[in-house]
């Protein structure tokens, strides 16, 4: 999954909670514009594993240090821990509730990155990072926005679906909010990422996995939600979709429980999409609200390749 935001002023008036979430300082707006550049390149699958660094000329090293210092200022300073990252998101008014702040503090982003593509120094900066297979872990500000939008529905005992669970980071944050007896089902189309996510969970948050017959708060599986994968699943109180849907797929609407909410980016592939809040009332009527412009990799159908294209005949 990948996520970055661009302000969509005309839509904020429609949802007061989002207006408060997205009002931010000029420095953060500058940071997001930099994140957009990063997201476009990563979303196209162009990220490659880091190569061994060659010895830099002193002048080159000095220029790089100046550049990183400038970038750090735009991104609200360079952070070195999960607590510093969450504090930054709170100062930026992206994390609004104590529950979301505590959940994000308990899930260390550094445990969920892929060291072949990013360093621990990258882990706590507010930008998306490649995790392999042409996918990324979204920028922390995007995780914060989605968690806050879903927070009223992420209550103990709830059932939650995370589509395009990728690194497993956001799934783990949601599972923390459901503790002690909810359940998150993460679905990821790339099998290598399922292995990576489960290894990260075992290293970073093993308490979310079943042990000695205990409660399973989180399960991440390989599959495609647009297939029949969800046929036997009961409805979910909250659904997060971490990939760009070219339509509001009926299979997801059917699996949203009455009184529940889905957060999903909808729009053309490899372009801007609109992050939507999709609410289903107790009578089953569906109401949608556009929130902001974002950029995500495609939510593909079972008949399509990973990049959203049809296979050659």
Cα Rg: 19 Å
How far the N terminus sits from the C terminus, by CA atoms, comes to 28 Å
Major beta sheet, strand line-up: 1-10-9-8-7-4-5-6
Strand content: 15-25%
One letter per element, helices H and strands E, the order comes to EHHHHHHHEEHEHEHEEHEEE
Please give the number of β-strands. Answer: 10
Structure characterization notes:
The chain has helices at 9-12, 16-22, 26-43, 58-74, 82-91, 98-106, 120-123, 140-150, 169-178, 191-204, 250-254, and strands at residues 5-6, 129-132, 135-137, 159-163, 183-188, 218-222, 236-241, 256-266, 273-280, 286-294. The protein has 313 residues and is an alpha/beta fold. It has an eight-stranded mixed sheet. Strands 2-3 form a two-stranded antiparallel sheet. The protein starts with a strand and ends in a 19-residue tail after the last strand.
Brief sketch in words of this structure:
35% of the residues lie in helices and 19% in strands.
Which helices and strands, and how do they pair?
Blueprint: E1 5-6, H1 9-12, H2 16-22, H3 26-43, H4 58-74, H5 82-91, H6 98-106, H7 120-123, E2 129-132, E3 135-137, H8 140-150, E4 159-163, H9 169-178, E5 183-188, H10 191-204, E6 218-222, E7 236-241, H11 250-254, E8 256-266, E9 273-280, E10 286-294
Helix pairs in contact: 5-6, 6-9
Please supply descriptive tags for the structure shown above:
two-stranded antiparallel sheet; alpha/beta; 8-stranded mixed sheet; 313 residues; 35% helix; 19% strand; globular
């Amino acid at each position: 999954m990948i996520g970055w935001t661009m302000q969509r002023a005309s839509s904020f008036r429609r949802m007061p909670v989002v207006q408060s979430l997205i009002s931010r300082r000029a420095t953060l707006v500058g940071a997001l514009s930099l994140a957009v550049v990063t997201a476009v390149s990563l979303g196209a699958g162009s990220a490659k594993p880091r190569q061994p660094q060659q010895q830099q000329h002193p002048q080159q090293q000095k220029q790089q240090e100046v550049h990183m210092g400038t970038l750090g200022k735009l991104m609200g300073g360079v952070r070195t821990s999960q607590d510093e990252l969450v504090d930054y998101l709170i100062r930026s008014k992206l994390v609004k509730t104590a529950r979301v702040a505590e959940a994000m503090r308990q899930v260390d982003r550094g445990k969920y990155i892929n060291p072949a593509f990013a360093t621990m120094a990258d882990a706590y900066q507010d930008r998306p990072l490649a995790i392999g297979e042409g996918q990324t872990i979204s920028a922390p500000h995007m995780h914060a926005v989605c968690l806050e939008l879903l927070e009223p529905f992420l209550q103990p005992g709830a059932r939650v679906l995370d589509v395009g669970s990728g690194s497993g980071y956001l799934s783990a944050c949601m599972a923390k909010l459901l503790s002690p007896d909810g359940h998150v089902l993460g679905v990821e189309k790339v099998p290598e990422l399922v292995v990576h996510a489960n290894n990260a969970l075992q290293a970073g948050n093993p308490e979310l996995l079943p042990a000695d017959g205990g409660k399973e708060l989180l399960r991440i599986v390989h599959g495609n939600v647009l297939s029949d994968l969800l046929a036997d699943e009961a409805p979910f109180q909250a659904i997060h979709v971490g990939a760009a849907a070219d339509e509001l797929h009926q299979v997801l609407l059917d699996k949203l429980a009455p009184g529940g909410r889905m957060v999903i980016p909808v729009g053309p592939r490899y372009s801007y999409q609109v992050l939507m809040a999709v609410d289903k009332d107790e009578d089953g009527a569906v109401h949608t609200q556009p929130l902001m412009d974002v950029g995500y990799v495609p939510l593909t159908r079972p008949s399509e390749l990973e990049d959203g294209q049809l296979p050659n005949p």
